[in-house]
Request: fold
Amino acid sequence: MTRERLAAVQGVELLHEAPVARELALRLEAPVDRVLDRCAERGIAAGYPLGREYPEYEDGLLVAITERRTREQIDDLAEALGAAIASEPGALVGNSATNAPGGS
Amino acid sequence: MSIAETPMQRERARTIFEKSKPGRRAAVLPAAEVPEPPLEELIPARLLRDEPPRLPEVAEPEIVRHYNRLSRRNFDLDSGFYPLGSCTMKHNPRLNERVAALPGHARLHPAQEPKRAQGALELMWLLQESLAEICGLPHVSLQPSAGSHGELAGLLLTRAFHADRGEARTKVLAPDTSHGTNPASVTMAGYEIVKVATDERGGVEMDDLRAKVDDEVACLMLTNPNTLGLFDENIAEIAGLIHAAGGTLYYDGANLNAVMGQSRPGDMGFDIVHVNLHKSFSQPHGGGGPGAGPIAVSDRIEPFLPRPQVVRRESGNGSGPTYDLDRERPKSVGRLRGFQGNFGVFVRSYAYILSLGADGLAEASETAVLNANYLKARLAEGRAGKYLPIAFDRHCMHEFVLSGKPMKKELGIATLDLAKRLLDFGFHPPTVYFPLLVDEALMVEPTETEAKESLDAFAEAIEQILAEAEEDPDKARQAPYTTPVRRLDEVKATRKPVVRQPLG
Reply:
């Protein structure tokens, strides 16, 4: 459910279509580190930046949702991700599936 | 001899699987707040298992009782005196547990960005600085997670140090009294172990050392005080010999509890030291962890330290320092484990260091040495003095080694029998049959946290066991009588351990 909810956020898409069990990989249309910073300001540790281990997924974010998270918290995460991406100047939200270079 | 079973012996310990009843639950999750589609819609059927896993189904009160009951079948430091030589089973202050359990410490994710883990990194950096001062060596890595892990790290650093100078040395020296992990780590690191003999005073046999030092020697591993509890008086000369031959000097810090604030391995000439935080710096231990074996090193070894390294960076703009993980270390031996180490261990040890302070740590070591010498003197009296003589008769440091050879010859009971009988008196036995060069060895380390009454009671128990052995040696030979299980087949337990739970 989290997967559908987050994939519906503008500027977020799934990194792959394979089935997932307890965590999922997203692609963000804004710099991942900046999005994480903005989410952290709202008290949300949104996920793990995949670029730290996989240079080919510089725009990747790994999100884990456990049984301890409520629907409200998942909604908050979706809202925070959307707001963070929208506030990034380089984000081409709702425009294209490709990730344009920031600031262009 | 007919022996009445105790209630705990009668009760066969059952595993949590044997207590399982279908349908029992410890917790019921709230109903999902979103529609729940069939599992096959989320995960393809071919990836799903055919049957649910056979997990134990037990209600919470039974789970609590199960594990509480198991804990009471163990002997532990909170139950009684635990003078296990070379293990430093000192009291673990409860304050440290409270500090380690603070949510910011206990619930921090290990993959959190350094900028959002500044408090944790600052604590680690301060612990590094404290250990550097205690060891007398300027650089510390907290990565190794056990004493033996620190040893392996030290040997990898030694190899990197020599390789950097274009040398490939092959041998590592260690005294024949060394901890068993020393030769094991040497072999694991791909070096050849060369043992150095012990002299009549219990120190390194200097002529033997001189004969074995050459330009093939990469390192000498030493613990000082050694496993006989004796401080090697020739340490300055030993260090000079090894350094002159181009080798490194490694200090096994397992016995650091004897010398905190008294003498520093760095001042003795050591290049690399590991510190068993779980021994000297108060940590619940035994049973395999978690622990920590940080290493402190000299300037010439520093470039090779594991990465990442916790570093402090001055901001330069007046906003105070920040802390970071330095991954850019081109000569580093690399990573020794996942994440940064057992963080809760760091918190407890740092809390311990802060609460004692420099004076308190020095006093702890003084008291550890005093307690060991008091108990040694008590055990030189009466039957213990006759049947269990001290192996090397001089003032000891934090521990001492007795020999049960006369006891075995004259009373017909072995050190193992005495150790088992001690359990009936409510004491954990000392380390037995180590170090190997002492026949029927008993290695006693009382630590600084034991009261005089505990030490006296232990000495009196040994006296009583020896007195009863004069009348009836079988009593010790069949001991223990009161433990949850009696004498076990230790060889079979090692060779053919039963680790599988058969499910009906």
About this structure: Strands of chain A lie at 12-14, 23-28, 48-49, 60-64. The longest helix of chain A spans residues 71-86.
